[in-house]
Specification:
Length: 438
């Protein structure tokens, strides 16, 4: 295989395309570095100038089964000439049903009814509407650092970066509370940060802001994604489940980024022994094609015909890709491979932490791992500029990584990664830290 970098990025073709991009495309998106993709396969990306990159981002945790997996390509190629759109809104076709049946078979008991949409934000919007319809309540509780999408309901739940909300209010009635971060416990005790958050909800939120009888749902990420790949204490989701059961509140778990075997189990919430009332899935479930799924029980998903719909929801091509993805993820030993590779990556990162003082914390489950970059391990002062410098230096040497939170590097590679890929990535990352820390 060709060397990783043959032309210093961005090359001449990439620069020309980026100039055109700036002239005609809205620049509201954030692009982490000037990468202009041409093609991809497996663990590798190629830019328009021929540079190859080892991908440790999976397109923001979308390409869990790798880029252009042959089973996904075959499924799409076979489906397109038969029926692409299908108008599942008004008519029925079999492919979305086959996808739904396979998905339900892989989920915990009780999650047996699904609604099909196109994206993570749409599946969150559907979850919010369903929760309001089922409970006849209007308030929601979500968490600081959480990211749930950019449409109005999803953005109302989101409290990650002020730029994402500035100028767009007013939002829906959502009350935000701290997320239990064992590394940064929001002023609470590190050892009891989950208990402290639960107590805060019970003794402060329910006493001063909203009666629990008015709360439709608590919306939470099983592992916080954009907020910094934060793994909550083991009992946190169980304690949320108890609050919800006590007050007739629905528990919505956003698994858009953490689902689809990212953590070694199909749902990250399975690690915590909790079955949500509603689950939101997207990103990896479509294998690179637009697909969102809102999952609930028959008892909860009782809204009548006409109450919610999407023109492109249940798109046959997306569902064909999704079915192929599910079959890959459901193969014997797939979750074990994710856990094995995650443990190996964690071990290699721990060695880097011994070498570089700016690595303050390493946490994760499976192949959803974050390292927090700090200027001082004692004060835990965030080092955003240094984090960004490491990302850019790694990019120049052929490794794609993405940030999370204010000073975290996230590791969310395709789940088919092997030890050789990890070794190559760590070597590049080691050189990047060495340059930044000189």
């Amino acid at each position: 295989m060709q060397p990783l970098i043959t032309t210093e990025p961005p090359g001449p073709r990439a620069r020309a395309i980026l100039e055109r991009d700036a002239e005609v495309i809205s620049q509201c998106m954030v692009r982490e570095y000037p990468l202009v993709l041409d093609r991809a396969e497996g663990m590798n990306l190629w830019d328009v100038d021929g540079n190859r990159y080892l991908d440790f981002s999976a397109g923001i945790a979308v390409m869990n089964v790798g880029w252009n997996h042959p089973d996904v390509v075959r499924a799409v190629t076979e489906q397109v000439p038969k029926l692409s759109h299908g108008a599942f809104l008004d008519f029925c076709s079999e492919m979305p049903i086959r996808f739904a049946e396979k998905l339900v078979s892989m989920l915990p008991a009780g999650l047996d009814r699904i609604y099909l949409s196109n994206s993570g934000a749409e599946t969150v919007e559907a979850a919010m509407k369903l929760a309001r319809y089922h409970t006849q309540r209007k308030y929601f509780i979500s968490f600081y650092g959480g990211f749930h999408g950019r449409t109005y309901g999803a953005m109302s739940l989101t409290a990650a970066k002020v730029i994402q909300r500035k100028g767009f209010g007013p939002f829906l009635p959502v009350i935000h509370v701290p997320y239990p971060d064992p590394y940064r416990p929001f002023g609470f005790s590190t050892g009891t940060c989950d208990v402290d958050v639960i107590r805060y909800i019970k003794e402060e939120i329910f006493r001063t802001e909203v009666s629990p009888e008015e709360v439709a749902a608590i919306v939470v990420e099983a592992v916080q994604g954009e907020g910094g790949y934060i793994v909550p204490p083991k009992d946190f989701l169980r304690q949320l489940r108890e609050i919800c059961d006590e007050h007739g509140i629905l528990l919505i778990v956003d698994e858009v980024q953490s689902g689809c075997m990212r953590t070694g189990r199909f749902l990250a919430s399975e690690h915590f022994g909790v079955v949500p009332d509603i689950v939101t899935l997207s990103k990896a479930i479509g294998g690179g094609y637009p697909l969102g799924v809102t999952v609930a029980s028959d008892e909860i998903m009782t809204w009548p015909p006409g109450s919610h719909a999407s023109t492109f929801g249940g798109n046959n091509v997306s569902c064909a890709a999704g079915l192929a993805v599910l079959n890959i993820l459901d193969a014997p030993g797939f979750g074990d491979h994710v856990m094995e590779m995650g443990a190996y990556l964690m071990d290699r990162l721990m060695i880097l932490r011994e070498k570089y003082e700016i690595i303050g914390d390493i946490r994760g489950i499976g192949l959803m791992i974050g390292i927090e970059i700090v200027r001082d391990r004692e004060t835990k002062q965030r080092a955003r500029e240094e984090r960004n410098a490491v990302l850019n230096e790694a990019f120049k040497n052929g490794l794609t990584l993405l940030p999370a939170g204010e000073s975290v590097i996230r590791f969310s590679p395709p789940l088919l990664i092997e030890k050789e890929d990890i070794d190559t990535g760590i070597e590049i990352l080691d050189r990047a830290f060495d340059v930044v820390c000189r």
